[in-house]
Design a protein that fits this description.
- The protein has helices at residues 3-16, 27-49, 57-86, 98-106, 125-142, 146-163, 178-193, 200-218, 225-245, 251-276, 278-281, 288-326.
- It has a domain at 3-149 and 247-326.
- The chain has 12 helices and no strands.
Length: 329
Amino acid sequence: MFGCLRLLLAFLVALCHLHVRFYGFDEGQIAVILFYILSGYVMTALIRKYYTNFESVPSFYVDRLCRLYPQFIFWLVFTSFLIFYFGYRGFFITDPHLRYLVNSILILPLGFQNLTQFLILPQTWSLGIEEAFYIIIPFIILYKCQKIVFFISFSLYLISALTKTDYLFSTPYGVGSFSQNLFIFLTGSIIFDSRNTITKPIMIALAASGVLIAINELTGFQIRSPCMEICIGYIFGVFGIIFFSRMRRNKVDDLLGEYSYGVFMCHFPMIFVFEKYREYLFNPEYSNENLVFFLMICFTMSVFSFHFMERPFLKARHHLRRFMLKVKY
């Protein structure tokens, strides 16, 4: 039911990194917010069904590692080869060093450190924040403290938005710190637990988002740009997740959703290749036709990386989940 949405969001992130903008807003940051809400929804469904106690938390971590790493490692190695083969240097590739490579492999540090010196896959900073969410979400759910943590995180976000202060433990790449993104993940979690309805915490967050947008548009007080994208993404995300959650699942939609991660991972190395041979492949500017061609290439590469790199691990994840249903602690 979420497959087409996930693929669309991955395409929006790719277009963002080609400097395409819709009505002046960064659609990539908005897409990341929707990804986070969706992640909270899906992870809560996963934990509620398969990983229902503290003893099963390590198995949940194995499940997530099998999801993140197969394609991540493949595209990390592939992109590293491109960087050194082409001798590429850019904003994210200025100081190659082993410790930066280790940070990339671990994923988690990417969401918490200013790693612009050597970031092989620049878009993976958001995976660092998502990995941190994976670490703590089982405990938030099992201790039944979703709403408390939601309000703490949302309060930090409001303080940052209204005072224009730097984000706590912020990343330089867009939508802020883990502490202030946590309420976005938990929005999806609360929506799942409330059977796809809007509860009081989410109503408050929606109202606050609308007020922040109104303040920005109708007064001289300018909300900092990432906060605006968070507000817009949050409003679209809440209603979008509820809308798509009421649709029936089907195999085609599920498969398109599986391809979304590959699009997200491969679009930067494809940008490296296209920029290298741009004079042969593209007009001086990215026309609509060229953008469609680029997205088609990314989709094709994602099909390859999913079926050859992730699919074997997908079977292992499903086997693990069936096993967890049978185990009684």
